[in-house]
Amino acid sequence: MVPRIFAPAYVSVFLLLCSPREVIAPAGSEPWLCQLAPRCGDKIYNPLEQCCYDDAILSLSQTRQCGPHCTFWPCFELCCPESFGLTNNFVVKLKVQGVNSQCHSSPISSDCHSR
């Protein structure tokens, strides 16, 4: 026979073992560590603040030179050569989200030759 002092403890253990094992959490509060973290080479980066460009992690606000007359945001734009030869002309094109953007299929953001 179980002493009366331990009866509440047995009931508590029984309830814990038999209760559902599902954790109830607010919608959209999934833990960050359980999601795949974006990588740039072998480094992890925060896509809300950074992007991966040529295997380097850049801040979203960083710019780069595109030809002699233009700057562009590598996180949001592509620097595309328009022609080769004696005069190298460049065009800045927009990256399309969710797609592996390429120069031949992206919309033009600015024409560096006309500046």
TrEMBL record:
It holds the Pfam family IGFL. GO terms for cellular component: extracellular space. It is found in: Secreted. GO terms for molecular function: signaling receptor binding. It comes from the Eukaryota. Residues 1-25 form the signal peptide. Its main location: secreted. Keywords: Secreted, Signal. Belongs to the IGFL family. This is IGF like family member 2. It comes from Rhinopithecus bieti. The lineage of its organism: Eukaryota, Metazoa, Chordata, Craniata, Vertebrata.
